[in-house]
């Protein structure tokens, strides 16, 4: 790779400290690094290894977001955590240890889960240059979807209101609002009855959304409770017959919804109850009344004070539910049968009777609404209650990858997701758009323009007749002059064409090789500069074309249709496009390779190239500044030094348009056939890891985490993976030993694997920050057993 030249001996302390890396990405790269703000989610062994490799080269600052306390497992794998820190905040201890590595770096931490941070400070992550997330399970939910579905069976006149807020229909403000408007819709349609059920496989509703009450915004909290009261009043006093088909767990608020209906049909093997006391919460009076009206004072008191959750069959014996079924379909059919009981009863009469039965309970809340609201708000804001809720939230675990990925995608903040488990490692980069000016290609041909020299260069080169030079001058002229001279001779005999094929180039090489004048002994000695000219025949005579990747960038919509949101890169590209259109070529890079020549002739030539590069860069700068002005962008958005750098590297520009992780996880088909047919392909790790993510999401543990659960977990993971493969329409199966291997790890991190992967991930982050070198596009897998690695574009 090409590198900036070494620094002079008079270096500042900082440049001494960073000397080696400055050779790789220069002062300007270092400046970007020192201005960067990096966020790490979860200070796992891998997470801290990544930060270590970013703190040492001097990022500006880092913030760790991690609500976990240090465990024994952490101590075993995480170099930055000490034995005596068990039980302390992982974010805090890791921050302190990392800061010791480099006094020039600032660091802080947030001792909260990323989900909590997301829920309370939506834009928190937007301020970072890069966000890195380790050990972050997916969360399968989409924020845009409708939260309830209402369907009416025209024949039976029965409406079904289905709760569909994944994953567990927790009742947040939006879901409650949708339930309420769903009921209004049904009321207007004058249906014979309503079935309330859920689209989730195993949950009816998890009750109130804890995020509405944990560290709440007081205004929203008020509104939330009012809407809950309204929704309950509407459902409880609904004029038409209501049945709850409880096709999954129904704790707390979920139970309240079911209790508000007139009849309850529950699938086997789930739980239901008002379990508030178990959570350290007191259920409001109308929750209690709803239960008392169904199972009576005595049973309610026993159930409520203990916060009991009843299994389906217990709930049946208690009268909390009316019927038990095997599945939702049977439940719906039984609900229709219940509703058909009222076929011969006038709906108004039925409705009025229900109103009278329920009137007192409804009036009670109506009378005390304001007081109930105040009590709730005060109670929710009580620090002790918040403490309970915090503990409870931690127990529920957080899964935040999907919403975080979407959020950062929209905010255009790069996200680097990494996982290290046993001998397996994975890095996935999410960038919406990433542009690179200095890609540092491995080999670069000098940009000499000998096929089409600009006038000043042509004039200079034409002024030297190589054939007539004396021996001494001849041996000191730069190789480029020689090459140009013989190229012109060649063209004279070949209809003005430059040599293209190997045979044609051999002809030119021979012309140069045969050129020496015999010495006094009649021997032809080929001077070093002539040897160099022969060498350049291969690399310097390719006609000046615009590389296809650069042309694609210049033809990109972002280059042609600039807006006020266009980045400086695109403004410079637009200006470059105009230069290319008028001159037919990219700007000259302006640098000459070293050559055996006398200083004067070399410098004369070097000046010509340098001056031409300056002139072209100035033209691009003027045009770019004008474009920026026309767009109303700030004047300092385009700097002359940046435009010079841009023009110098115009033939290596690189653009990545990535893919959002959330989209990747929601994809329904994936063509893996070609990979899975190759026994050496590491693609199976992708499938295994996706299975692992889903396992963690469903069971809140790692497969194989508990010794006595390894075999059952293997079966569970296998079934999850085959479900995934069938979701992707992929007929291949994953070999059993692969699944066993992952379960054997039990979620453990190995420090050695995390250290390697941490270095790799940190290097990708440096590329993203400095906008130098091409970053990974987009996933990297590392197998520490075979020492193989592979990258895939997912
Ligand atoms: C402050 C004053 C308040 C006074 C009001 C008093 C009245 C209170 C009424 C209430 O309703 S309080 C809420 C009580 N709810 C519960 O206790 C249920 C908790 N959830 C569960 O037990 C289980 O989730 C479940 C319903 C049995 C389903 O289990 P499953 O294994 O299928 O899913 P999980 O992995 O546990 O959860 C998936 C996902 O959903 C999140 N989640 C679960 N419940 C809630 C909730 N109530 N609010 C918000 N989020 C919830 C859970 O954290 C998981 O999230 P991720 O980890 O995927 O991010």
From TrEMBL:
Which terms does the UniProt entry file under GO BP?
fatty acid beta-oxidation
Q: Report the CDD domains cross-referenced here.
A: crotonase-like
Taken from the UniProt entry, a GO cellular component term is: mitochondrial matrix
Residues of the THIF-type NAD/FAD binding fold domain: 18-133
Q: Give the catalysed reaction(s), semicolon-separated.
A: (3Z)-decenoyl-CoA = (2E)-decenoyl-CoA; (2E)-tetradecenoyl-CoA = (3Z)-tetradecenoyl-CoA; (3Z)-octenoyl-CoA = (2E)-octenoyl-CoA; (3Z)-dodecenoyl-CoA = (2E)-dodecenoyl-CoA
Output the SUPFAM superfamilies linked to this UniProt entry: Activating enzymes of the ubiquitin-like proteins, ClpP/crotonase
Single annotated GO MF: delta(3)-delta(2)-enoyl-CoA isomerase activity
User: Quaternary arrangement and interactors, per the entry?
Assistant: Homotrimer.
Briefly state the protein's biological role. Answer: Key enzyme of fatty acid beta-oxidation. Able to isomerize both 3-cis (3Z) and 3-trans (3E) double bonds into the 2-trans (2E) form in a range of enoyl-CoA species, with a preference for (3Z)-enoyl-CoAs over (3E)-enoyl-CoAs. The catalytic efficiency of this enzyme is not affected by the fatty acyl chain length.
Its protein name is Enoyl-CoA delta isomerase 1, mitochondrial
Query: What organism is the protein native to?
Result: Exocentrus adspersus
In the record, what lineage is assigned to the organism producing the protein? Eukaryota, Metazoa, Ecdysozoa, Arthropoda, Hexapoda
